[in-house]
Amino acid sequence: xxxxxxxxxxxxxxxxxxxxxxxxxxxxxxxxxxxxxxxxxxxxxxxxxxxxxxxxxxxxxxxxxxxxxxxxxxxxxxxxxxxxxxxxxxxxxxxxxxxxxxxxxxxxxxxxxxxxxxxxxxxxxxxxxxxxxxxxxxxxxxxxxxxxxxxxxxxxxxxxxxxxxxxxxxxxxxxxxxxxxxxxxxxxxxxxxxxxxxxxxxxxxxxxxxxxxxxxxxxxxxxxxxxxxxxxxxxxxxxxxxxxxxxxxxxxxxxxxxxxxxxxxxxxxxxxxxxxxxxxxxxxxxxxxxxxxxxxxxxxxxxxxxxxxxxxxxxxxxxxxxxxxxxxxxxxxxxxxxxxxxxxxxxxxxxxxxxxxxxxxxxxxxxxxxxxxxxxxxxxxxxxxxxxxxxxxxxxxxxxxxxxxxxxxxxxxxxxxxxxxxxxxxxxxxxxxxxxxxxxxxxxxxxxxxxxxxxxxxxxxxxxxxxxxxxxxxxxxxxxxxxxxxxxxxxxxxxxxxxxxxxxxxxxxxxx
Length: 512
What we know:
The chain is an alpha/beta fold. Helices cover 38% and strands 23% of the residues. The protein folds into three domains: 2-143, Aldehyde Oxidoreductase, domain 3 (Alpha-Beta Complex), CATH 3.90.1170.40; 151-399, NAD(P)-binding Rossmann-like Domain (Rossmann fold); 409-511, 3-Layer(aba) Sandwich (Oxidized Rhodanese, domain 1), CATH 3.40.250.10.
């Protein structure tokens, strides 16, 4: 509620009207008439207002504060007429469940009131003169807003590859970030700080205590609140020059296209296969570029789908969504908080480079495997699959004859049901699990080769014969799929991977 009054402001009455038994926090602002302004001695003030316009705009500001800061209620009273030194000119009060929201909302309201309301002030000076003035500091802020925005990006625009033209590209870009968790926090921070003009945040989750160690937007007192609102508030606080769109909903087949259509680039910051594949399939259909990232304990992966570069989609490598349980989530196996920070920062950098038009070739066609135990990065060439069920109808102008030959070979994966028949043939089995994985899991007696691999897959080309046939196995079938794809690319035509890996094999043995 907003009040313009010629009488003294009744603070106690306003506080009584704001009282709410659900409120755990209350903050107020009081603006008094002081005896100087801009170095000149002041005897008194006089306020005049365009009443209807001021009241309407003030109610809009109070409504904005409620939506932005999750407060219970807010009130503002502003004096008009003649005021003497020491009199209360403006009062603002805010109630909320938590005090932090009250503080932030209170500051927002006074800043907006001072810059947006048609209220004019006349100062009566000690020398007998008088002058109608605005709050000169606030007016300066308004006049210099464009200059402030220029200064905000000044350390970025001096980069030769960016400049003011590149900054303009970012300002005109619209990016959707799906997931406001461990990956989403650094992604949002650096896209926001970088000046992406419109950022959409899609997440339906609320903050859990276990999230905070790797999601630095959030505070302990925010537990239980929607992540979308918390993330949007944080980004708005660090960059007031951009627009934040909130999508506090589960991304599904029912809404994904209507959300995607409003953005130029999608960033997948999710932690489950089903959503990643849905994002991939929709992006291919709508020709929307996507930057993907995922994390696992101390490791991470980074890759892109960029339709204008004919880059392969997810299903070019993984035709079907992996079986549940083939790779555990962070909830099950844990994750180092900084790993999410590093991968999210790299993902944001890849996105900014793409928007600026300065991305390198590897980001278009390669999968980056990052191991933060030994600080290594391995880039694996991804191959387009002309028979891909999702993007196979796209024209592949950049596919080499070698890639076509490799992709014409039968699918990489061998189903678990075919294991018994393969044992009778001339395939050699290659177990690339770590020693720890072998100790913790059921042994695999059929393997003729035991080659423990963490990141350096090229060792397989030294150990294996391109004239022989191999089935590569790992714990969950993911690393073996990379290995088989790499070997195919390098002239090993009869290399396959066991779908689901040893974990799926063990499961089938238990079920049988």
